[in-house]
């Protein structure tokens, strides 16, 4: 028997040996039938010999990928194909997904009793302001028809395009009603929460899961004959159980809860959940043995087997949930190698989500007024905007709010508050009042935060410690006002070259320390232009609590640079490793927008603004 010895990284940036225990003697074939239907949402295996750039095209080892599906079928699982566990929508595009589905359906036809359902969605349709409900319906119908032509069954996946286009619950009812009326066989409806995909926030027309559940239940009741079951992925056992008890008779609840799946599958006196889980992909032999024990009414063995698996699942799907962490694989040496290769490929495929692109209006303020910028964002399908207060004043707050609302944009931040030190202590009271007005404006626009450029040294002062104390006093004075408004304050640490005149908070560590002292309602914005140089960045961003990461600003540092304020570069034109910093942010739990903020007097401010927005979108995908 081979027992592996590994060297694992530690929190202190060292290595320590870890010796694995003896493998559990789980069978490679199901030891008996299950009394729950159990789908494994399964990964794809990378081709480690491929010369393809995984940022541009997936390189899949098709033989190993299909071999692993056969392994799951032997263990008694059904296969949920081409879903998020296979990096669907995060590197695996629709044409490649359809090829995967074709191969998987064909392989299932060779194995008696093998079940495979495949994800149908709208991921080939780019969300945007000009995409309406009818386009969403056609996109769903296209994918459903393609899968059914191959002889496949369908998991009807949640749609980013629908989330962006819908104006209320009736739009969801219309889309699902139309699509369900056309499918040949009953489908599984997948309700994926925004912890897995932020672009799905507000699905079913409500941000609150309870009213959203009412809309979903109404759709299920109206089309029960076309629905096999519903998979709910909200990581809330309470919501799942409540919905499970209200499903139409005969309809299955498939748990998608990778945190509490063991108890939800076991059930209670009122019922139980079947399963459609990504974690079953990682623990297949153990899960098969556990489900066999449950079918034999051996609840003790079921719980004993799954007890060490639940913490693993909670690690793999820990926040940020949509980025699956490293896991473990029992099985053959080839399967283990394939899983490791697959995990590495998953990480390399994580291109930025285009739905998370936001435009700071400074980027084109030299060419366009605010109303033109709003229209430009809508025209180019950019879903976030961060306006400046002087631009809002020129257009008018009410008109700004109306135009932003009608364009469907999210205000990712208001620029800007702060400057508490500009006139020293005699001017602090006035600065506080101005910041309170900024809070009210940001709240009126439903901004995600008010960005604070805190101020540098007062005129004639050399006391930077005193300036920092004045900043803390000023933020503390407005904090209750911002809390009452439900508006987070976002401290933006600026490059040390601005310490004298713009911001005496210059590192993530300094901003974090200030947040610790001030308490709830204060966080930080990380702007790559200001922090890329910091040798402690890889330490300090991961130490930041996810709820305090309020913004991520992107551009590039040109070398040589001609002006430290107005010579910022477009992403990819300079020397900042933006992907590395984005990785640090996401590893720390950041799930928000990526805001392009470029001051460029001699380049981008002189270009056609539509060209600038096209470049922002392209460089966000290529360089971030």
Oligomer: single chain
The rounded distance between the terminal residues' Cα atoms is: 45 Å
* CA radius of gyration: 26 Å
What's the CATH class label of the largest domain?
Alpha Beta
- What is the level-2 CATH architecture name of the largest domain? Alpha-Beta Barrel
Largest sheet: 9 strands, parallel
Treating each run of at least 4 consecutive H or I residues as one helix, how many helices? 23
Number of DSSP-assigned strands: 21
Question: Which parts are unreliable, with pLDDT below 50 for 5 consecutive residues or more?
Answer: 327-349
CATH-assigned fold name of the largest domain? TIM Barrel
Number of domains: 2
Q: What is this structure's SSE topology?
A:
Blueprint: E1 5-9, E2 15-19, E3 38-41, H1 62-74, E4 78-81, H2 94-109, E5 116-120, H3 133-149, E6 153-156, H4 160-165, H5 169-182, E7 187-192, H6 209-222, E8 227-233, H7 237-244, E9 252-255, H8 261-266, E10 274-277, H9 279-282, H10 284-295, H11 299-306, H12 309-316, H13 333-348, E11 357-360, H14 370-380, E12 384-386, H15 389-395, H16 397-407, E13 410-411, E14 414-418, H17 428-444, E15 450-453, H18 464-485, E16 489-491, H19 508-518, E17 522-527, H20 528-531, H21 537-543, E18 549-554, E19 556-557, E20 568-569, H22 578-587, E21 594-596, H23 609-623
Parallel strand pairs: 3-4, 3-10, 4-5, 5-6, 6-7, 7-8, 8-9, 9-10, 11-12, 11-21, 12-13, 14-15, 15-16, 16-17, 17-18, 18-21
Antiparallel strand pairs: 1-2, 19-20
Helix pairs in contact: 1-2, 3-5, 5-6, 10-11, 14-16, 17-18, 21-22
């Amino acid at each position: 028997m081979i027992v592996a010895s590994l060297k694992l990284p530690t929190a202190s940036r060292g290595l320590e040996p870890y010796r694995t225990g003896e493998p559990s003697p789980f069978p490679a074939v199901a030891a008996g039938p299950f009394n729950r239907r159990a789908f494994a949402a399964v990964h794809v295996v990378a081709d480690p010999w491929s010369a393809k750039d995984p940022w541009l095209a997936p390189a899949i080892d098709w033989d190993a990928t299909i071999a692993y599906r056969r392994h799951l079928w032997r263990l008694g699982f059904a296969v949920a194909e081409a879903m998020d566990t296979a990096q669907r929508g995060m590197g695996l595009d629709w044409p490649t997904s359809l090829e995967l589905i074709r191969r998987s359906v064909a392989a299932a036809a060779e194995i008696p009793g093998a079940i495979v359902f495949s994800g149908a969605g709208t991921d080939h349709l780019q969300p945007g302001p000009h995409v309406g409900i009818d386009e969403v319906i056609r996109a769903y119908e296209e994918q459903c028809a393609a899968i059914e032509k191959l002889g496949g069954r369908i998991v009807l996946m949640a749609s980013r395009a629908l989330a962006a286009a819908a104006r209320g619950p009736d739009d969801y009812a219309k889309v699902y009603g139309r699509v369900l009326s056309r499918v040949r066989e009953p489908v599984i409806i997948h309700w994926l929460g925004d912890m897995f995909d932020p672009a799905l926030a507000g699905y079913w027309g409500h941000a609150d899961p309870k009213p959203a559940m009412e809309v979903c239940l109404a759709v299920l009741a109206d089309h029960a004959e076309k629905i096999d079951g519903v998979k709910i992925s909200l990581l809330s056992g309470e919501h799942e159980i409540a919905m499970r008890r209200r499903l139409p008779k005969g309809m299955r609840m498939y748990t998608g809860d990778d945190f509490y799946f063991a108890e939800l599958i076991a059930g209670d006196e009122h019922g139980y959940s079947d399963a459609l889980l990504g974690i079953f992909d990682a623990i297949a032999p153990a899960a098969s043995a556990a489900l066999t024990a449950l079918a034999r009414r051996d609840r003790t063995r079921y719980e004993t087997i799954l007890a060490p698996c639940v913490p693993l699942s909670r690690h793999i799907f820990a926040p940020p949930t949509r980025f699956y962490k490293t896991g473990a694989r029992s099985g053959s040496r080839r399967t283990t190698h394939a899983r490791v290769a697959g995990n590495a490929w998953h990480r390399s495929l994580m291109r930025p989500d285009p739905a998370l692109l936001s435009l700071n209006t400074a980027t084109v303020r030299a060419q366009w007024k605010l109303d033109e910028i709003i229209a430009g964002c809508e025209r180019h399908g950019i879903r976030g905007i961060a306006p400046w207060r002087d631009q809002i004043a020129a257009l008018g707050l009410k008109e700004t709010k109306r135009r932003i609302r009608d364009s469907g944009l999210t205000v990712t931040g208001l620029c800007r508050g702060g400057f508490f030190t500009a006139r020293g202590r005699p001017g602090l009271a006035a600065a506080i009042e101005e910041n309170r007005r900024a809070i009210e404006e940001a709240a009126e626009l439903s901004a995600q935060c008010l960005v604070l450029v805190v101020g540098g040294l007062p005129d004639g002062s050399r006391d930077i410690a005193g300036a920092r104390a004045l900043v803390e006093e000023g933020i503390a004075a407005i904090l209750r006002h911002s809390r009452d408004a439900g508006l987070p304050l976002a401290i933006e640490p600026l490059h040390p070259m601005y310490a004298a005149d713009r911001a005496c908070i210059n590192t993530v560590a300094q901003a974090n320390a200030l947040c610790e002292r001030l308490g709830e309602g204060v966080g930080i914005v990380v702007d790559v232009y200001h922090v890329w140089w910091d040798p402690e960045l890889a330490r300090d961003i991961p130490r930041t609590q996810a709820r305090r990461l309020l913004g991520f600003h992107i551009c590039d540092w040109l070398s040589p640079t001609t002006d430290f304020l107005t010579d910022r570069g477009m992403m990819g034109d300079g020397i900042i490793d933006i992907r590395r910093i984005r990785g640090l942010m996401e590893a720390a739990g950041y799930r928000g927008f990526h805001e392009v903020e470029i001051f460029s007097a001699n380049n981008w401010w002189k270009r056609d603004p539509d060209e600038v927005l096209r470049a922002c979108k392209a460089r966000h995908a290529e360089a971030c």
